[in-house]
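The instructor's notes for this session suggest beginning with a concrete chain rather than abstract definitions. Hand out the sequence below and ask the class to guess, before any prediction is shown, which regions might be ordered.
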Amino acid sequence: MKKTRRFAPWALLLGLAFLSAALPAADPDLPVSHRRLGLHSNDRMHPNGAFQVEVLVGKQWRPAGFLFFDRFYREQQLELKPEWMAAGSPAVRLSRQGGGAAQIDRVLLDRQPPVRCSVGSRDALARLAAADSDVLDASRGMIRITFAAAGKNPVLALTARIEGLEIADRAFLFPRENPYGRPESVRSFYSYPFRRIAGKGKSADPFAEMQKRPPFFKEYSLTGSGHPSGFTYGWLSHDDSYLYASLDFTADNTRDGNKDYAALLLPTANGIKQFRITEQESRWGQARFVYTPRAGYRHKFYTFRIPRREIAPFIDPNGNLPLAFAAYGTATPGSTRPSVAFDPIRGQYLLVYAKTLSASPYFDIYGRFLDASGTPQGSEFLISSSTNDQLEPVVGFDPFNSRFLVVWMDYYSGSHYDVVGRRVLADGTMPAPEFVISGVTGNQIYPALTLDSVNHRFLVAWQDDRTANKDIYGRIVNPISGFFSTEIILCSNVEDQYSPTVAFEPTQQMYLIAWEDNRNSITTGRDIYGQWVHSDGSLEGVNQVISDATANQTEPAAAADPVNQKFLVSWEDERTGTSDIFRQLVNSSSTGPFLTGLAKNVTPLAASNQLYPTVAYNTSPGRFLLAWVDMRDGGWDIWGQRVIADTDTPLAPFFTIADNANPLYYPSVAANTTCGNFLVVYEDHGSSLYDIGIALVGKPCSLHLPLVQKN
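After discussion, reveal the predicted structure:
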């Protein structure tokens, strides 16, 4: 229970007076509702197999029925005959029938856990007592489970999963700029300072020493296979003889023998050199299935010990070693990454997302309409499906032609990702098939798009590695007739560029493209650069710095203010030692300076990390809304701030948009220009059946809606 401090009335009045003088006026339009979409609630199960349930009656096992499962953990219930449970200590027997590997997370009889289990592990009962991702392998043989007693109407509740015989072979790749794929497809690398320290010798216990330090990298891994989503942690160190690395892969909580692997990856002139570890392959290290302090369930933990002579040829003249990691189990990657756009003609939103059904290991692109309050309308519908992955969808709306453009990265070629699009009419119909926007050799990934509201066409930008480096490309797309321009090279600096964002300002008819840029990485880390682009696709001037402070600036997001002819760019910024959200105004007219004022820290008092910003502008109140993932309360919540466009000042310091108990990620925001509010959508990682959350920020359009409504 929280303690409440008591204040004298005079102290309260004095404090309120101080706050009113020190802070901007309070924002009267706070978030009014948030809810979960129920993305998988109506997803019909496609069973991979079943558990046969038998009950011991006297000395004979009687068949009681079957409980069917797919690859997602689900609770299934079976009513048992009361007369079979009359004797004390009732016993049931479970055996998998069909499908691939199977795991049990929890089994209860009348909501009570078992007291005995035939599996020899000492902690088997604890693993069966709670749905906590600490699972029991049930792939082979029968499992006998005994309970203390049963009620008058006994019900067996089993939480389990059964994999299919076909499992996607995508690995998690780190750094995260690499799209999901196989180790040989890695094109982005960390830089590890592998400088020789004379006389250091060998470390006594390098792996124990590494665990005392912060990880070299920490990346969130969203699974699409029923395994728990969670962080992957990596540590690195070295001495005169070896390179040491540890990989804590919390997303893989099942032990699948030689199927599971991790690999340390180095770039060479002939491709990727792999140092691979499995339970049977131990030349370069060891694979273990253990508990660690970073997860409350058993999972894969890999340790690498690679001789220096194997590494030395790949160390650059500055003493840095480029390297990456791959981790694979039946814990295959997943991605929803929702995006939303508003149709002011019909007063509705189109929400798009990548979703995997239980019948397929791959991700397809889906859409669903929402009304002005964010309430789902009708059923979800399929936008794109193939035998490989479609990921990272984004959506925009053209009111002149009354149609949406949905764009995503697509692996249907089977060898690399392309940027693909499809037009969706405001009534949900799709009169033409999908079309390739960019499909050259190499990966075209992480697309962004924005509408030119004057000329009624879209600019699509993406990260492109058709050459040895990662560049930013774009193309102007007419929503009716197809391409307006050929592909445009937006930035091809000799160093890498990542993660573009785009916005259009109609008064000056100018696009702004912003991205992460690695050209100063040795001195300042990653920076945010930008480029003006005219409506015909021609570039205005050269790349400009938006932020080149010390440490890294990443994950840019941009929106345009047509009234004041400005762009607002927001990003993650590590200059303070933690990741904060910064913002910067950029002019849209080439007759003036590129930047307006100085970069501002949106979250200066937050000691924890703030991540994944997004921003939109609403002309009705003349405000930007910034939203981001915030860890200040110990969880992963969605927070926001409104910014007055003409003065670049906040209406209030910041506020909570969504604070569910589940981790929340990757917000996307759209402005409702009719009602003057915003809709924020985000990933909700509540279980293996991840979901999408929806938050309405501002006064609702319908006055009969409650002022505060949280589901």
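Then share the key points. Confidence is low (pLDDT under 50) at residues 1-26, 703-711. The first strand starts at residue 31 and ends at 36.
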